[in-house]
C-alpha cells in the first residue's frame, strides 16, 4: 500500500466508550483526537493538567502496553487523511521567563554578597593600617638611637678617607656666602664614595598587598578564619614575599665582643660594610653628622611603610604571580626609598640627600627652598610600574632633638584636607584618609612631649606646612578621581540635604568632563559643603533648633501609596545646619497649676505622648526626679512590674508602679521605608525606681538559685550513673 504524502497511519479501532471532556477533546485509552476549533493555548493548558491521562506515561502499566501492542497489528492499519488534525506545539516561553528571573535574582544576590565581602576586607585592611602607625613611628625613634652610639660613630668616621675629611674641613673655613655653592659637590662626592664601599646584602621594609589579600579573601564577617594548605604555604614562605632580612635579635652572637643587643648587630654590619638599604641610610646619616664641621640641622626622614587600604586587586596582581615576589636582595622593584636625609644651614634652603636608591645625580643631592615641595620621592603609579609603594605620612627627626615632625605636605601631594577648617559634620571627617590622619596625629603627640617653647616652634612649622599643602595639590583628571578626592568637588555632586557655603579662598581650578561634549566645571574646596538635617533628625541627635532660625533649604518628601490615601499633598521638610542648633534641654520637672502655684511633676504619665511612650534621645534630657531602668536579657522588667501591680491590688497602702517606654532612636534598616522605634529602657519616678531595684535583685537571686538547683540535680544524676555503671 502506497503512502500518501498528506496522510499518516493511525489506528482504526474505535473506543468502546467515548467521553468528551470540558475542553472538547475526545478522550480514549488508545487514540487522542484533537478538536480543531480549540486555540493553541487551550490545548497546551489541557496537556499540562496533572489529572490528564496524556500528561504522563506512568498511567500505563506493563500489561496495558503489551495488550495495546498486540491489538495494533499491521493488518489493522490504513491511510487516514489529516486535514482535520491540528499539530500540537508546546512553547517554553513561560519557562524561559522564569529561568531568566531566577538567573537575575541569583546574580543580584551574588553581587550583594561580593560587595559585602569587599567592604569587610577593606575594613580589615584599614584596621591593620591604623594598628601599624604607632609601631612605625617608634621605628624612627629607635633607629635614631643607633646614630648616637659612640662605637658605631667612631667606626663609621674612621671608614671615611682622609682626603674627603680634609676637604670638608677646608669647606668649613670658607666664608658663609661661598659655603652653599660648594657643599653640593662635596656631598655628591661623599655619596659616590659611600656607594662604592658600602653594599646591599639584604631586603628592607616592604608591604605585600596581594599576599594580605590572598590571606583574607575567603574571610566573611560572620565566619572565622579557616586555615588551608594555600594559607599555610603563604604563612611559611614569608621570605618569598618579603625577602631575606638580617636577624637583629640573636642569642648566639659569634663575634668576640660583648653582646649589647640589637646595636651589636648594627656594629657588625658597619664593620662588614654590608646591610639593607634602609640601614645604609642610617650609616650615611651618622657619617654626615661626624664629618660636617660647622653648625647644621641634620634630619632623618622616614616615609612610613603602612598598609594601603585603598589598594585595588586585579587579575595581574595576585599573590601567586611573579610580580608580587621579591626579585632580589637589592629591592630593585621598590623605586623609592623609605629613608632619606635633610640638611639645613639657614632658614632659606635645605638639601635633600638620597645616598642609596636614586641614580640621577640631580636627584641624589638637591637644593630646595624651605617652602618648596619635593616631588622626587612621590611614588608614581601613572603606568602601573610602582604599585607596591604608597606614602601616607613622612616624618623627620633631628639628630640633636627628640622631637618628631610631620613633613608630609613637602613630599606628598593632595593633603590640604588635613589642614582645612572643617565644619562640625563635614563630609571630609567621614573619609578614611582623614580618620587615619586623626589617629596618626594623636600618636604623634604622644611621642612628642613638647615644652611651651618647642610647641610654639612646632605650631609655626604647621602654619608653613598648611600653605605648602595648599599649593601642592593636583587637579583631578577624571570624574572617578574627583569622587575619590578629599579636597575638591563640583556643584553637580551636591546631594539633596547639602548646600555650599561661599568662601573667599577659591582654588580657581577647573576640570574637563565628558567624552563627546567636553564641559569645564569649576572646582571648590570640600570644606564648603554643609550637611543639613530636619528638626526630627536633630532631635534624635540631641539638638534643637534655635529660635527664629530660618531653614536653609526645603525638601519635598515623596509620598508612599499608603500615605497618599490620607493626604494628597506632599510633605515639605525644613532643613537646618549644625550652626543653627543648640543642645536639647531637659524635660521640664515642674508645672504651674490653676492656682498659679509651681508644683513638682511626680506622675510619669505627664510625659506620655499620643503613642503612649516618651521620646528621650539623650540621657541628659531626662527630667529631674525620674530614672531610667534598662532592659535585661535575663529577666523581663515590664513583666516583673505587672506581676507586682497584680499582687498589690487589694493592698490599699501601696500604689502601683507607673512607667513609660522610652524611645531613644529609630531603626531604618529593620523594615524598608519605615522608622521602627528603638525601645530598650523605661522611665519611672524615684520612688518606683527603688522598688524596681529591689524586685530585680530578688528575682536575680531566684534565677541564680534555680541555676544552682539545676546544677545540683545534674551532679546527682551523674553520681547515680557512676555508681550504677562505673566511671566512663
From TrEMBL:
GO MF annotation terms: damaged DNA binding; single-stranded DNA binding
Any single Pfam family the record assigns to this protein: Rad4
InterPro entries, alphabetized: BHD_2, DNA_repair_Rad4, Rad4/PNGase_transGLS-fold, Rad4_beta-hairpin_dom3, Transglutaminase-like_sf
Basic and acidic residues: bias regions: 1-21
A GO-annotated cellular component: nucleotide-excision repair factor 2 complex
Highest taxon above the source species: Eukaryota
Domain Rad4 beta-hairpin as annotated: residue spans: 532-594
Region (Disordered): 1-28
Signal peptide boundaries: none
GO annotation terms (biological process): mismatch repair; nucleotide-excision repair
Stored PANTHER family: DNA REPAIR PROTEIN RAD34 (PTHR12135:SF2), DNA REPAIR PROTEIN XP-C / RAD4 (PTHR12135)
Protein name as catalogued: Similar to Saccharomyces cerevisiae YDR314C RAD34 Protein involved in nucleotide excision repair (NER)
